[in-house]
C-alpha cells in the first residue's frame, strides 16, 4: 500500500491525530498508536484502521464520523481507556466488533445512521456507558446493550421488533426515544419503573391506552417531554396528568382515537408545546395553561371548540408564540376570532409576537373598516389622537395560490408606507395553507411604525397633526431572487390604543 504524503515526518510520540478526509484505505503499518489519546479521521476513505490487536492503552477518543467506506473495526480489547467512539454515518459498517462493547471504560457510543448495521449486542452489563445513539440504523434488527450508567438511548428509525430485558436494568435512563421502530408493545410495568426519565418518545404502540397512560403519569413524574405518536388506542387522558409538574412538551400527533383532553390541562403549569396534529377524533380543547407557547392542531378535522383566551402573552424562552388550527374545518370560527382578539390585544400590550391561524375566507369583523375593500389590496389608516401602542394584523391566503404556485413559498407580507418611507413584514414564516386566516401582533414591525410617527410629529408644529398610514397586503416570495407578489384575499389592520 502506498503511504499518503505526510506520514514520513509524523512523530512516534504523537498523542492527538486529526486528518479530516484522510485518503488511505487504512493507516500504515508504521503508524504508532501506543501514546495516542485521540484519533480523528472524520470523512476519510478508510475501509479498516489496521490489522490485528494494537496496544491502545492510552486512547480515549475515536472519531470516524462519515467514514462512508468503513466496513469493519479492529479488535479494541486493549483499549482499556477508551471513553468516546463516534461511528455516525458509517453507512457500510455492518458490524461493531464485540471487543468494543465489552469495554467498561466506554462512556459514549454513536452509531447513528449506520444503515448497514444489523446487530448491536453485548454480553456484559457495562459499567460506564452513558450515551448510546442508534437512531436511523434502518437495518438494525437485534439490540442488547445495557449499562448501569446509561442516561440516553435512541432506537428510532430501526427494525427492532422486541426490546431486550436488559434495557430495564438501565435504571438511570433520562432519555428514551423509540420513534418509528417495528415495536408493537412495550412492557408498561417495566417502563414505568424508569422513574428518572425526562424524555420519552414512542410511536405506533398498541398497548398505549388510557390505563397504561394513567400508570405512566403516576410513576414518571420527572417527565419534561412526552411524545406518544400515532398511538391509536389512546382515547382520552385522565386528570392525573397534573402529576407531571415538570412537563414542557406534550406531543400526541396522529393519535386518531383521542377524543378529549382533561379539564385539568390548565394546571400543567410548565407546558409550552401542545402538539395534537392529526388527532382526527378530537372534538374540543379545554382551558389551556398560561405557559403555552405553541399549539398545533393541524388536521384536527372534528375539532369544534377551543379555549386559548387564558394563555398568557408574556415572554417565554422560545420567542414567538404560534397557535395553528390549519384544516380544522369544523372549528367555531366566531369563537376563535374573539379569543384571538383578546389574546393578541394582550400580546400588543406585552410587546410579544403571537400568531393565530385558522380556516377562513375573511378577516374578523372586529377589524371594522380597516380592511381591504373591493379590488384594492391596501388599507389607508387614519390614527386617533390617543396614544398608540401597536397593531393586530390579519391576512387571508387566497385559494388560487395553491393551484397557481403550489411549489413556491409565498407567505403573507405587509408593506407599510408612511410618507416617503417604506418597510415590510412577513406575517408568517411558516407555510400557511390556502383558504386560511393568519392573525399576528409583530412587535418589531409596530416599533418601526411608532418611531416614524413620533419623529414625524416632532417635525410638525401643529398639535393636531394626524398622519396617515397605508398597509398593503400581498403574498410575497420569501427567498431571493424576489418572486412576483400577488394580492392577499383580504387584509386588515387593527390599531391598539392605550385606553383599550
What distinguishing features does this structure have?
500 residues; alpha/beta; Leucine-rich repeat, LRR (right-handed beta-alpha superhelix); 18-stranded mixed β-sheet; five-stranded antiparallel β-sheet; 5 helices
First-to-last CA distance: 81 Å
Class of secondary structure makeup = alpha/beta
Give start-end ranges of low-pLDDT stretches. none
Summarize the main sheet.
18 strands, mixed
Shape: globular
Helix content: 10-25%
Q: What is the alpha-carbon Rg in Å?
A: 29 Å
CATH class of the domain at 1-153: Alpha Beta
Strand content: 25-35%
Give me the number of helical elements.
Answer: 5
Question: Per CATH, which architecture of the domain at 1-153?
Answer: Alpha-Beta Horseshoe
Mean pLDDT: 87
Total beta strand runs: 27
Amino acid at each position: 500500500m502506498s503511504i499518503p504524503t505526510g506520514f514520513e515526518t509524523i512523530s512516534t510520540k504523537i498523542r492527538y491525530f486529526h486528518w479530516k478526509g484522510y485518503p488511505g484505505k487504512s493507516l500504515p503499518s508504521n503508524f504508532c498508536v501506543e501514546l495516542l489519546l485521540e484519533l480523528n479521521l472524520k470523512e476519510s476513505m478508510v475501509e479498516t484502521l489496521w490489522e490485528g490487536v494494537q496496544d491502545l492503552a492510552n486512547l480515549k477518543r475515536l472519531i470516524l464520523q462519515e467514514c462512508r467506506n468503513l466496513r469493519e473495526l479492529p479488535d479494541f480489547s486493549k483499549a482499556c481507556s477508551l471513553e468516546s467512539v463516534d461511528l455516525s454515518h458509517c453507512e457500510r459498517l455492518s458490524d461493531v466488533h464485540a471487543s468494543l462493547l465489552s469495554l467498561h471504560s466506554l462512556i459514549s457510543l454513536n452509531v447513528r445512521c449506520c444503515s448497514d448495521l444489523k446487530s448491536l449486542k453485548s454480553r456484559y452489563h457495562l459499567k460506564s456507558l452513558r450515551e448510546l445513539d442508534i437512531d436511523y440504523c434502518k437495518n438494525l434488527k437485534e439490540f442488547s446493550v445495557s449499562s448501569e450508567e446509561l442516561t440516553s438511548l435512541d432506537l428510532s428509525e430501526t427494525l427492532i421488533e422486541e426490546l431486550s430485558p436488559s434495557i430495564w436494568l438501565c435504571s438511570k435512563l433520562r432519555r428514551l426515544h423509540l420513534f418509528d421502530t417495528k415495536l408493537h408493545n412495550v412492557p408498561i410495568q417495566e417502563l414505568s419503573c424508569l422513574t428518572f426519565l425526562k424524555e420519552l418518545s414512542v410511536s405506533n404502540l398498541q398497548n398505549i391506552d388510557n390505563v397504561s397512560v394513567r400508570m405512566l403519569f403516576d410513576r414518571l413524574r420527572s417527565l419534561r417531554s412526552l411524545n406518544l405518536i400515532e398511538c391509536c388506542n389512546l382515547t382520552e387522558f385522565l386528570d392525573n396528568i397534573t402529576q407531571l409538574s415538570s412537563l414542557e412538551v406534550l406531543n400526541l400527533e396522529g393519535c386518531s382515537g383521542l377524543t378529549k383532553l382533561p379539564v385539568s390541562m390548565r394546571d400543567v403549569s410548565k407546558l409550552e408545546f401542545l402538539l395534537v396534529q392529526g388527532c382526527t377524533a378530537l372534538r374540543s380543547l379545554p382551558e389551556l395553561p398560561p405557559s403555552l407557547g405553541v399549539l398545533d392542531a393541524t388536521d384536527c378535522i372534528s375539532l369544534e371548540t377551543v379555549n386559548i383566551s387564558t394563555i398568557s402573552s408574556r415572554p417565554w424562552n422560545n420567542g414567538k408564540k404560534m397557535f395553528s388550527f390549519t384544516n380544522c374545518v369544523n372549528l367555531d370560527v366566531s369563537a376563535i376570532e374573539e379569543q384571538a382578539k383578546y389574546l393578541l390585544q394582550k400580546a400588543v400590550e406585552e410587546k410579544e409576537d403571537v400568531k393565530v391561524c385558522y380556516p377562513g375566507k375573511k378577516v374578523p369583523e372586529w377589524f371594522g373598516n380597516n380592511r381591504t375593500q373591493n379590488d384594492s389590496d391596501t388599507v389607508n389608516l387614519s390614527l386617533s389622537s390617543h396614544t398608540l401602542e401597536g397593531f393586530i394584523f390579519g391576512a387571508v391566503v387566497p385559494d388560487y395560490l395553491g393551484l397557481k404556485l403550489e411549489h413556491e413559498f409565498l407567505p403573507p407580507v405587509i408593506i407599510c408606507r408612511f410618507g416617503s418611507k417604506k418597510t415590510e413584514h412577513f406575517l408568517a414564516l411558516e407555510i400557511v395553507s390556502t383558504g386560511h386566516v393568519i392573525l399576528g401582533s409583530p412587535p418589531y414591525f409596530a416599533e418601526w411604525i411608532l418611531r416614524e410617527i413620533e419623529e414625524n410629529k416632532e417635525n410638525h408644529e401643529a398639535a393636531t397633526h394626524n398622519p396617515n398610514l397605508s398597509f398593503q397586503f400581498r403574498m410575497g416570495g420569501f427567498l431571493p431572487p424576489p418572486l412576483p407578489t400577488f394580492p392577499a384575499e383580504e387584509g386588515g389592520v387593527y390599531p391598539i390604543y392605550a385606553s383599550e
